[in-house]
Amino acid sequence: MLLELIQGTEGGGFVVITDSAECPARPLLKSFVNAALKRGEQVHVLGFDVSEEELRSGLEVEAAHRLLFHDGYTDPLGWRGRDGPSASHFSAQEIGTRVGQTRDAGPVTLVVDSLSWVLRHSPPAAVCQALQELRRGAAAKRIVLLLHSDLHPLGVVGSVCHLASAVVAVAAYCGPGGAGGEARPQGVATSTRRSKSGKVLREEEGFSVGEGFLVQVQGRHPQPRWTEPEPEDTQADPAANLTFNLRLSEGERQAREKLPLPFAFSSERKSALLQPRSGGGRILYEPDAADDFDQEDPDDDLDV
To answer: What is the 3-state secondary structure (H, E, C) of 214-283?
Structure first.
């Protein structure tokens, strides 16, 4: 699944790559950038973690003109008044304006390197709202974010990943060496993709990033499934040592079903009650001597 997400053949219009200090994922992020450049897409990078020179190092030289770096690394908080993205003012409108000013007619991939700078200086709710607007807008066909998960609470990481259509969680490889004389994988990528129908696909793969930021998958490593042990039934049966029987035999059950209920009418009794009788009923009313009925004011007895 990892290679399909990089090449853009799998459904992943909004991809979040999570890493940690133990296993950085910037080489994998540059693999996404390089693949987008090879597809002829224009790539806009909001750079906060590294400089433009470091980001461009090793990428496609022929397609360098399609990579536009919006410098948030030099002045990430806007204290120097430079014309670059600010981590403290992250909004979909401002990003859409930057992309629209230099956008070509072709598809656009938006890369944020990294979102951790933004989350450290902006409210997480405002950042998630801006990402939601970017995902629904037409500024970019694809959005790829790098997020350092060890710098944020689990709730913040989960909120950002919940917005994504695909999440690639990068971790260090702790298994044995590669099979068949292969080199040891550089890391393990756990890819989770949510389809439009709501189905969630998950796959764990060992990978290495080679020259030219080409990703090589080195076997799949299914995650062990932890099954919760079933609790032992140690509760005693309350009907075990009784002097009387709480359960019915088959004959007793049949006899109970044949017993008529006191509130249930039989068909004979229903027909007898519903049968019309001869003669009609009359209502006789004789007013008392104390009744003082006034035709002109029938409610005079209500006067206080």
So the answer is: CEEEEEECCCCCCCCCCCCCCCCCCCCCCCCCCCCCHHHHHHHHHCCCCCCCCHHHHHHHHCCCCCCCCC
